[in-house]
Sequence to fold (120 residues):
Amino acid sequence: KEVTEAPTTIFDKIIKKEIPSTVVYEDDKVLAFRDIAPQAPTHILIIPKVKDGLSGLSKAEERHVEILGYLLYIAKLVAKQEGLGDGFRIVINDGNDAGQSVYHLHVHLLGGRQMNWPPG
Ligand code: 5GP
Fold:
């Protein structure tokens, strides 16, 4: 995976619709779109539209509490929208050891198959 900690990432271009993505949910605060390399039948990324320093969860400050909670709430809404009534998994990769490749905080929503723990 290519790693970038640049202030802007490919997700900024997705937010601005400068590169295409399959959007499944959007409002003024967040965007949810299908992962380009799905690891499960349903694999969606949920991101804040304003990065505000949140390159990853490890950069979270108290001012981010509201958006962090909102991202999880939207993940739940999208899971329902996607028909994941039998279950789903939420993942946030942070930093090199986790294999984070895009440094704009994102919540992975995975579902549609049985997950194994670990490694899944
Ligand atoms: P990370 O490894 O940082 O947790 O997750 C980044 C995710 O972004 C990966 O699952 C990767 O497939 C996805 N991704 C990277 N570039 C693009 C893109 O241009 N479009 C979409 N839809 N997903 C992308």
Observations:
- The first strand starts at residue 23 and ends at 26.
- The chain has one domain: 10-111.
- The pocket of guanosine-5'-monophosphate is lined by residues 10, 21, 33-37, 45, 93, 99-102 (CB under 6 Å).
